[in-house]
Design brief:
Oligomer: single chain
Number of domains: 3
Strand order of the largest sheet: 7-10-1-8-9
Order of helices and strands: HHHEHHHEEHEEHEHEEEHHHEHEHEE
Number of strands: 13
Structural class: alpha+beta
Radius of gyration: 22 Å
Number of helices: 14
Helix content: 25-40%
Distance between the termini: 60 Å
Strand content: 5-15%
Amino acid sequence: MNLLSLLSHIPSKPLNRRTFLSLSCLATASTLFLDTEDCFGQSADDQRATIYKKMLSGLRKIKDPDRNYPGDIWATPEQMVLIYSCYNKLSKVQSLIGYSNFNFIDLPTVTYSARQQRNTGKRLGGKTERTLPFTRPEEQFMDQIFAIDAKTYGFYGERVIYDKNYRINPKKLISTDCHFLRRGEAHAKYIRIKKQVSSKYSDTRGSTSKLDMQVTSGIRNIPKQMRLFFRKAVRLTQVPRQSEVNILDLKNGTTQLAHVYDLKKDWKRIAADVARLKSQSLPEILKRNERKDFVLGKGFHLINLSATSRSLAPPGYSWHAQHDFDIGLKSGKLKPYNFRKEFITTPLFVTLFSHGFIHLRDLRYRQDNELGVRFEPWHIQVGGPNGLISKTEPNPSQLWIPNRES
């Protein structure tokens, strides 16, 4: 049984409920950890079909990463203002430097660029957008967010980068689809997959856009990952329904239980900070970049850091800083499935997986992984904890130690 023949009735549009349920019923008791080695007498094609059916049936069971769960860790009102402010200034530096270059520049370059207070070339309302210097509390906050053990708020992946000023040599990168990949195995792996997919164009019916693959995210240094992490946090700003929540104590690197009633009192102390964010054109930046309203002016809100880390690896923990990359569709009706778990229902993923162009070992974050991360079928692993590519060694002097003066 071939996977493509099994799934030949999958339409090139989002699955409706009837089709999705019928496919889900095909699930077997096989494990996701099977690979293409012979197992129970199955051929490689049958094994991939069995694994894919298991993956497809598990889509509805995957928890919503943006939902609040018991034990989640929240940012305090003061930390939330710092998240908004740092996101604001990182966004302005990105506008100044350029989207592609911002992927690989280091944190010292970002803070230096912010101090220049230069025009970014964009306008917000009736005034020109300019970069803004990071304050000392903001720089300390970014240092602490980078240095704290992410397990404190629910991310259990291993740290990839230990130096907050980590530098990436642009000469070792190659531009691909407006992103950058590391020269060597990462770029070679993408080219190999791309060629294999291209060779199957003649085997498909309809538009080749169904299999038109591109890099959707490549190398990402600390500032880029930090901006994405803060961006996701801003998107998850909400009013908690619980009467008590766990909050992050950055000073001691721990968490503590707090009453929402007391946090609402703390909210009154940040009124001046909220007004300052408004004056820095943050509402316009959110509207432009996120299509999101500035909600801090509407009263008490908090940010769920645990939910944020389920979708975005915290700065220092993303393998994008080494060699990993994301793939997706370049065009077509299914392009919105890029960065969504439903990506596995697209003809592109079906082709990649059914022909063995990618395997389970190529997916960094599988379904039901134990790292506290959502399922990411678009995230291609290059090297890893047991691989030969990552040569990052811990430097104890750069680790976060509670109460140590920075």
